[in-house]
Specification:
The protein has 248 residues and is α+β, with helices and mostly antiparallel strands. The protein has one domain. Helices cover 21% and strands 33% of the residues. The chain contains three helices and twelve strands. A hairpin with a 2-residue loop joins strand 7 and strand 8. Helix 1 packs antiparallel against helix 3. The protein is elongated, with a radius of gyration of 25 Å.
């Protein structure tokens, strides 16, 4: 019986198709945009809130809107050059995860219009997820476990957002050299206020806390560089398969 040895190769048409798709994807990736990351630790956010309200230990925050400051904001500081696009990552919480609602694009006006926003400058809306229990932000996470099991904004509190977590805004801009510069990130938060820090009695619902936080821009690796790294591996793999075919 004759044994046929399998040969590993890609048909010429298929390898050509793969390369064509690969180069099309690369050409569609914008090369001019730089992605800057603005990370705000929960502990920094807690300190900002504490500086704005009396008795910060009595506030339980469940909704936060964030965006770069505008010329219309009082004490706005250095403004980000326009236009820019914004993506976001919510604070890490498990199992009662938070979410970021819609990525905001200044150019397309398709973000969430937060309280105090002036179109087309939209906010990222960070809020609790769809679980039966919700996660909330309080002033002193290490000692404020008493809020767990209480009712906030009509939902049962299941856990606290860890103060080691963070809000992250990734801003894509055609302007280079923004890293290392400090910008103000505006926030607008909703909170239920309790009568004291034991959270025994809810006193004032849907309180508004409004302010800004100074954040330094850092560089974020562009998806294009990651994709090109993978494509380089793919090209080498195709070349290796075709070389094997020739020597078999």
């Amino acid at each position: 019986m004759r044994t046929v040895k399998p040969t590993a190769f890609l048909p010429a048409k298929l390898s050509g198709l793969v390369l064509g798709l690969l180069f099309s994807a690369l050409s569609a990736t914008p090369a001019s945009a730089t992605i800057y990351q603005f990370a705000i630790p929960i502990s920094t956010f807690q300190s900002a809130v504490a500086s704005l309200v009396g008795s910060p230990d009595t506030y339980v925050i469940y909704d936060v809107y964030m965006r770069a400051t505008l010329a219309s904001d009082l004490g706005h500081g250095t403004l980000l050059p326009s236009p820019y696009n914004v993506n976001a990552t919510p604070p890490a919480v498990s199992p009662d995860a938070w979410t970021d609602v819609i990525n905001g694009k200044v150019t397309n006006n398709d973000g969430i219009k937060g309280p105090g926003d002036t179109a087309p400058y939209q906010s990222i809306h960070f809020t609790y997820g769809a679980n039966a229990n919700i996660a909330v932000i309080v002033n002193k996470n290490a000692t404020d476990g008493a809020v767990v099991g209480k009712t906030v904004n009509g939902h049962n509190v299941g856990e606290l957002v860890p103060n080691t977590s963070q809000f992250v805004l990734d801003i894509s801009s055609p302007t280079s050299g923004l890293q290392g510069n400090t910008y103000k990130i505006y926030f607008f938060a909703y909170a239920d206020q309790f009568s004291d820090n034991t959270y025994s009695t809810s006193a004032n619902k849907a309180q508004i806390i409004e302010g800004s936080i100074d954040v330094t821009a850092t560089l974020t690796p562009e998806p294009a560089s990651i994709f090109m790294g993978g494509s380089g591996f793919l090209l080498l793999a195709i070349a290796g398969i075709r070389r094997r075919r020739k020597t078999n």
